[in-house]
Amino acid sequence: MKTKPRIFHGLVNYGTQSGVLAMYLRRFGYEAVSVTRPDSFCRVTDVSLPHGGNLFQKITRHAWTRIYLGYCFFAYDIFHFYFGITLAKGQWDLPLYRMLGKKVVMEYLGSDVQKYGVSVGKYKWTNVRYKQTPEEGVVTDRMIDKRLARERKYVDKLLVCAPCYSEFVTDSELLPLAIDMEQYDFTPLPEFDGSFRLMHAPTHRGNKGTSYILDAVERLKDEGYAIELDLVEGVSHEELKSRYRKCHIFIDQIVGGWYGTASIEALAIGRPTVVSIRDSYLEHFPVGPELPFFNADPDSIYEVLKSVLGLTPMQLQESAQQGREFVESVHDASVVVRKLVSIYEDL
To answer: Is residue 2 part of a domain?
Structure first.
């Protein structure tokens, strides 16, 4: 019988991808582990590398980390890395995996491959415009080109987590973001007590177009709409999930052109979601049913919110059900891991 490979996921855990995929790989009979850097959002992982403390603690924790990662290098057969980060600083370890018969998968999650020049040149609204100056963008783009060239030389498989990054890594394959559906029970919308409760949870306000959302909400309030906005920032992942359940409508980013983990989680819980979707990206998304989002950008966010506020509770509940079904078919971790196992088997 062929022995299943041992699989390493790390060292970042954005969107809890490392932790969730490793957990579900174990359910499929693989020996898999997620080893990640410390996470202020307390996302699920198997091993969180120690850090901080006084000088002695920093030295001992750094030494332990290097020894442990050295052990992982020899103990695992497939290394699924994220965000251009490998076991060694500067990726000097990349040539060694192939020399020892190991396989490397690199999954890109966003700003690790999204280039400033292309984004600003092609799109009126893009999140990178609010995160970097043009001068910083030039430097970042050069770094991305240099790193991708190195990774293409040594990495066995390139993945992107969303179709909005496919244009930056043209030889990549899409692996949809995954969530653990067991952690997201479908919850009916809260009772309507005379006002709509909206929620927006930016990890970076510029990245999400928060200022445009706040302006649209204030304009609607001035016009007499009974709405409350829960602006959620700097909370743990568990607190975030709790806050989803208290709102009627979730508003994610409106400048990026695609949806991320927050939108998926909100849909899974049963919250109609407003997010920016760029039609040109659909050609890179050949899976699942029609997208169940309310599409908005800074030009249209006021009108879209006004339209959504005009829906009946029954219409909103129908939208919530469609969102849940979409997540179950595309982003359920068990569905994503089946695709991932196929990718591993092809290596």
So the answer is: no
**What pLDDT shows up at residue 1?**
56
Task: Give the pLDDT confidence of 141-157 residue by residue, as tens digits.
Answer: 999 999 999 999 999 99
Which backbone phi and psi does 183 adopt, to 5 degrees? Answer: -95, 0
Name the residue with higher pLDDT: 326 or 39.
Answer: 326
Q: How many CA atoms lie within 13 A of 301 on its CB side?
A: 26
Nearest Cα to Cα of residue 22 among 34, 38, 4, 37: 34
CATH number for the domain that contains residue 248 = 3.40.50.2000
- Conformation bin of residue 192: beta by default, left when phi > 0, alpha when psi is -120 to 50: beta
The structure tokens listed for 112 are 């690790």
Cis peptide before 11 (omega within 30 of 0): yes
Q: Which of 174, 155, 173, 166 is nearest to 86 (CA)?
A: 155
- What pTM was computed for the model? 0.93
Nearest Cα neighbor of 245 from 296, 184, 306, 290 is 184
